[in-house]
Every structure is written in structure tokens, then in C-alpha cells.
Amino acid sequence: MKCKNCSSTMPESVYFCPSCGHISDETQFKNQDIAKTYEQKMISIVEGLRQQQHIHVDWNSTADRYTKVMEQLQFILELPEFKNNADNLLQRINIFFDRCRKPEFHVAFIGTVKAGKSTLINALLGQNLASTSVTPETAVLTKFRHSEGSDYVNVEFYNEAEWSQLWSSISDNADVFKEEYKTLKGEAKRPDWIGHAPIHKEVSHDELEKEVEQWTSSKKVEHYFVKEVEIGLRDFNVPKSVVFVDTPGLDDAVQYRSNVTRAYLDRANAVIACVKASDSMTGHELNTLYRIFTNTSNPAKVHVVGTQWDTLNNPQDGWAEQKQEWVKYLSQSNCYGSSEFAQQNIIHAAAHINNLVRDYEKLSEDERWNLTSIAFKFKIRESELEQKLDVLEELSNIANVRHKVDEIVAKGEEYRFKDIEKSYAALQEDIRKYFVEIKTDQDELLQTANENIETIRAKFEKAKKDLDDLQKYRQQLTNTLKLVSEDTSKRIEALSKELGRIVK
């Protein structure tokens, strides 16, 4: 079928030409005025699509093609007719754009508050950069990546709208957050930082920890207003496209920060899920892990780390028993799919031990006593501690965790593109369902409207008939009353005459 306006070929079943927006066949419409109104709207939409500015994706031609399609779908979904009900789809499209336009491979460290995410990251980085302050928990989305030049810190701040959402999401049990905010005179400092322009600062390696602490430590008032921190490391031995992400806790007392982590599950290309080795697989942890597996195209990219392994009463035997319990839950088809696969990807770690051993020469007296206490659990006496630091480092299992992460990173390009393909297919299907649902709703509405019209017409006809019957009955009653009146008058007249005769 050819369009009469632009001569392009189009399907037989369409009302408007996809290429120009003009009506394909005027005879399909009973009301030409309405048809012309919709034709002008379709012409406007087609012209808007034609003028869309495409942001080119140069690292992969297929990703570029996918992006162009999604840009057009985004334009349509943002039309007033659809936008109010398409928030979730539009959010997912923006995440898709981020994946395609930024050729990055994000390894997200996710878990509950105080599960040891930051300590584990510090062990993998080789220095203490991720915040491990006691209270409050990791509150800032913190990214670590390779820097081609100097070490640097980038800081982004909340705007007014974001801060308002964060503040309104503070739960009733966030007493520590509120008290420290008050103690540090946060409200007085708020105007200085909310909406502040991003900060970029290059620093020497020796100054890096102090600079990061300023923006991430709960003891610094600035930390409350920081939305995201990116740390560039010259000595970070990973490809420049790889980003480690330390996320806020999933059960943070500030719901806004927990939501940041939940949203990041959809963006991450690989996940290191941190669960305390001493914890049972409760519903909370399981729900988190199930969502992680649901949002990944390949379970091989998910590693579950039993953190703080050394806190078990009997770490070696206790972990063997605990791990089997975790394997039982995570070998299901919606997770690893087999017990063998789960066995491979569930590992333990004692990052705190690794970090104490790494920094042994700089440890304070309290920190050395802490390490000595831990060593005693493994039957290492204080007198032989220095000679057996390598044993403790091996027990921490960080080398094994690092090896697992390196395996993931080595396949980053492959994993990243598969994520894009999966995300694109899922978005296409969900957008198709969205418009099918709209069409179904509209058809049902029209059917209901037609049914209502018929019902109203039937009621009108019945009311008209009832009125006609009432009028007929009224006329009959009037005639009857007239006859009765006439008969009564005649009887009275005859009676009067009879009475007159009797009286005479």
C-alpha cells in the first residue's frame, strides 16, 4: 500500500503513514473534522521524531542502533498522552542510555549496612579509601576507577529537590543520623553545600586518604550533602572502563540512600554481594540476592561473599556448615541453577585481617592488640605474630576474591554487551506491552461508552413509551370522569324534578 502524500510503502492496517503522518485512507473515518485533527497531531509527531538529536555511540555500532531506537521511543513516551503512566519505562530507558553512551563496566559492591563492603573494597584497592566509619553507614555512592594521570577526587552534591526527598525519607530509627547532623550544625551549613558546583581536585597519593575522608566521613559535616564521589587512582591496575562502586547499605536508616543502591542493581554489570558470614539466609538477604540475579543476564557475574568470616566462633568449620546452607538456597534455578555453580561463586573473606596485615608497620597499639586477638583464634601466639603475617593474609582469602573479580573484569566487554542486548530486548517487549495495554483500555472504554449509549437510548425509549401510556391513561380517565359528571348531572336534574312534583 502506497501513501498518497509521500508515496512510501506502509502496512494495510494503519490509519496514518509512519513516514509522514498523513491519513492513509479518508474513507475509514466517519467524522472528517476529527480525522484532520488527529492527522495534524500525527504529522507533528513524525516531524518531532525526524528532528530528534541522536547522541552517537562510537564504541559499538549495534549499541548505537539500539540507542537511536530508544531515543525515538523516549520521545513518544514523553508525549502528554503517555508520560503520566510511563515513569518506570522512562527511567529504565535513561539507565539504558547510560550503559550505551558510557562504555564502562560497573562492579557494584552491594549488601546490608555494616556487611563489610567498604572494608572489602579497601582490601582490593590496597589502601583505606572507602569509608568504614562506625556511624552512620556508607552514605555516599563512591566510585573507584583507573586514572591516566594524577590521583583525583570528583565530588557531586545534592540539589534542593534531591535533598528534600532525602530528608523526608529519614526513618524514625535514624536517631544517630539526626544527632550527628545536629552536633555538626548541619542545618547552618546546608546552604553552603546544597546545589554546590561539582568539585574536581587532583591530589598526591599521600594526600588522597585525607581528601576522600573530608567528603565521605560521618565526622565531616560536608559528607551529609554529597551525592556521589569518584576517586581516580593511578595505581589501580584495572582497565580504564572498569569502575568499582561502593553503595549505601540496603537497610540504611535514610530510605533515599537505600533506594540509590536498589536502583543501582539495574545499572551494575557485575555484583559482589556482601553478606555477613555469621548471618543466616533470612528473607531480607534472600530478597536482595534474588533481585540481583533477576537483573543480571549471567549468574557467573554474581559472587556472594561471606564477609567478616573471622567473627565466626570457629571460622573454618563454622563456615563450611554455613556455606552449605547458603548453597541450598542459591542453587535454585532463579539463582546459580546448580549446587556446583553456587559452590564456586560463594566465597568467604576476612578483609579486616588483610588490611591489618597490610598496614602492620603503621598500626596503633589498639590495632595491634586487635590483630593479636584475631590471630589467637587461629592458634597463632603473640610471640610468633610477625613471622606468621603471611599465614593471616592467606586466611583472609582476599587473594581468592581478587582472582574472582579479575576473572569478571577480563570478560567485561563481553558481559557489558550482553547486558545491553538483554536490556534492549526487555525494554522493547515492555514498551510493546505498554502500548497494547493502552489500546486494550481504550477499546474497553469505547465498548463501555457504546454500551452506555445503548442503555441510555433504551431507557429513553422506555420512558417515552411510559409517558405515552400515561398520557393515554390520563385521557381515558378524563373521558371517564366526564361521562360520570354528565351522568351525575342528569340524575340530579331528574331527582330535582321528582322532588318538585312531590312537593306540589
Task: Quickly describe the structure.
With 504 residues, this protein is an alpha/beta fold. The protein has helices at 32-50, 61-77, 80-83, 87-101, 117-125, 160-168, 175-183, 186-193, 205-216, 255-264, 283-294, 315-330, 339-345, 351-358, 365-377, 389-396, 398-410, 412-503; strands at 105-111, 141-146, 151-157, 199-203, 226-233, 242-246, 270-276, 302-307, 346-348. Strands 4-3-5-2-6-1-7-8-9 form a nine-stranded mixed β-sheet, with helices on both faces.
Question: What this model shows, in words?
Answer:
The chain has 504 residues and is of the alpha/beta class. The protein folds into 4 domains: 1-51, no CATH class; 54-103; 104-350 and 397-423, Rossmann fold; 444-480. The chain contains 18 helices and 9 strands. It has helices at residues 32-50, 61-77, 80-83, 87-101, 117-125, 160-168, 175-183, 186-193, 205-216, 255-264, 283-294, 315-330, 339-345, 351-358, 365-377, 389-396, 398-410, 412-503; strands spanning 105-111, 141-146, 151-157, 199-203, 226-233, 242-246, 270-276, 302-307, 346-348. The protein has a 9-stranded mixed β-sheet with strand order 4-3-5-2-6-1-7-8-9, with helices on both faces. Helix 11 links the parallel strand 7 and strand 8 (302-307). Helix 5 crosses helix 14 (351-358). The mean pLDDT is 85.
Total count of helical runs of at least 4 residues: 18
Categorize the overall geometry.
elongated
Q: Would you count the extended β strands for me?
A: 9
Q: Determine Rg (CA atoms, Å).
A: 37 Å
What is the CATH topology classification name of the largest domain? Rossmann fold
For this structure, the quaternary state is single chain
Strand content: 5-15%
Enumerate the strands of the largest sheet in spatial order, edge to edge or round the barrel: 4-3-5-2-6-1-7-8-9
> Helix and strand string, N-terminal first?
HHHHEHEEHHHEHEEHEHEHHEHHHHH
Ends apart, CA distance between termini: 108 Å
Q: How many structural domains are formed by the residues?
A: 4
